[in-house]
Amino acid sequence: TRFNPRGEIDVLDIDATGSRHGQAAFPTPGIALLGTAVAADGACALASRVDTTLTHDLIVTYDAQARQRWVYALPEIPRADPVGLAIVRDGVLAFFDGDTLAVLPKM
């Protein structure tokens, strides 16, 4: 892409019922999604792989207005498994590396 030669993931918020009030967020670096979670209010969390090393992965959150809130870099180890994400009232739960549960701050 024009901003990141290694790849970007675009986040588009569209309403499948025909609303014309869609939103586009600023892209996040990545070549693949490892996990996603969407809250009832439209906030979302994405786990993305940044490059082909299999060690550079991020969790990125967006609020309901498609604004990026924060980025959390996962530990740099080879990661073949998906990342489990859930958005709860007080934050984001992330399960990764087969044995690690992280409670990340509220969006």
Descriptive account of the structure:
The protein is mainly beta. Helices cover 0% and strands 46% of the residues. The strands form four sheets. It has a four-stranded antiparallel beta sheet with strand order 5-6-7-8, with no helix packed on it. The chain has a three-stranded antiparallel beta sheet with strand order 9-10-11, with no helix packed on it. A two-stranded antiparallel sheet has the order 1-4. A hairpin with a 7-residue loop joins β6 (44-49) and β7 (57-62). The mean pLDDT is 83.
Task: Draw up the topology in text.
Layout: E1 8-9, E2 12-13, E3 23-24, E4 28-29, E5 32-38, E6 44-49, E7 57-62, E8 68-73, E9 84-88, E10 91-96, E11 100-104
* CA-CA gap between termini: 28 Å
- What structural class is derived from the secondary structure elements? mainly beta
Radius of gyration using CA atoms only:
14 Å
Q: What is the residue-mean pLDDT, rounded to a whole number?
A: 83
User: What is the percentage of strand-forming residues?
Assistant: over 45%
Following the backbone from N to C, one meets helices and strands in this order, namely EEEEEEEEEEE
Helix content: under 10%
Number of helices: 0
Judging from the principal axes of the Cα atoms, what is the shape?
globular
What does the largest sheet look like? Answer: 4 strands, antiparallel
Strand order of the largest sheet: 5-6-7-8
